[in-house]
Amino acid sequence: MAVGRDAIYRVRACAGEACLAPTTMQFFVALNEVKGLVVSPLRCFTSFSMTMICLVTPSSCHLVTNWRLDPPRALRYTRATTLKRRSPMNHRLSLEHIAQAMQIIDPVFLNTPQYRLEPLEAQLGCRLVIKVETLNPIRSFKGRGASLFVAQVAPGDTLVCASAGNFGQAMAYACRARGVKLIVYASVNANPLKIERMRALGAEVRLHGEDFDAAKLEAKRFAAQSGTRMVEDSLEPATGEGAGTMAVELLRWPEPFDAVLVALGNGAMLTGVGRWIKAHAPNTEVIGVAARGAPAMEESWRTGQIVEHERIDTISDGIGVRVPVPEAVADMRGTVDDVLLVGDDTTIAAMKLLHQHAGIVVEPSGAVGVAALLEHRERFAGKLVATIICGGNLTPQQIEQWLAHE
What we know:
The chain is of the alpha/beta class. The protein contains 15 helices and 18 strands. The longest helix has 15 residues, at 212-226. The chain is globular and about 55 Å long.
């Protein structure tokens, strides 16, 4: 966003409002610490008890708004990166590429089971179709996008990515098949089963930071320093286009769906599925589901500005996004009808129901669609709804904690 030289800087505090011309104060915002903003140089405002700051930087920097401490939520701020609405004609994700991906993606990830889960329908009050994406070598849908992306990479090349675990497994599987070296950055708190599997599939795994977004920041630093190609899930169109093949398969269902519920993490799955459905079944609602303890993507989509959080608080590690990818949020506009937030307790209840009635082990991120149906029974009552069971990587300890006592 360009800012003229005569722009006014407004600093709001509970003591009042001060207006400062750019000649009086210059703000240079550096996001060099994950835990917050570093603003320099900064006039001393210790006499103010600040609750909100609105800063407009020079045109070479970016606009930062709504920086606030909102207990009990973590420190968050909104970058006023205006998100352009994607029209069908200029959307980043290509319908042609999604269709072509059906011929490129490793067949082990394609044509997954989708069926009515009738034993659960009476409890949910709707007709439910589940699409099971856990019956493959990595137990998640991520193999679709990774397989499509790596097919474009020359054997012998080196890639780097960051992952909470499932994308890293998918990339490791695809890179091993293609003869590509892979370095994965993951959080020190990442699921140990997922870390073990990434290494078993041939990836070099480096642990850094307290969460996925901290690991991703370090991966980007390493990639820039070393000249290694960075693969960012949801930023690379192929990750969304590969995920879009699930919608191709879903729409083979003989009846039109009233709604499709899709887990929302970085956005590749939701935008890929939504892109295809809105082009071929526009009356079907495409609804993202995120964790209530990790609402950054939902808030960014709803406000039209990028909202970042200092921390997340959810068991759904696969969708625990703290720092959204702006391009992915922009991709949601025009392809997504709504985003719902669900609590961890409801997610655990959904995992148990899927285990009892479908006989499948589902990680929290894979169960949030059913969790949304539990929390919004009236909204979906009597409707034909589909949801994607997108991941099933649980450690033995997690199985004992969440599924053993049903």
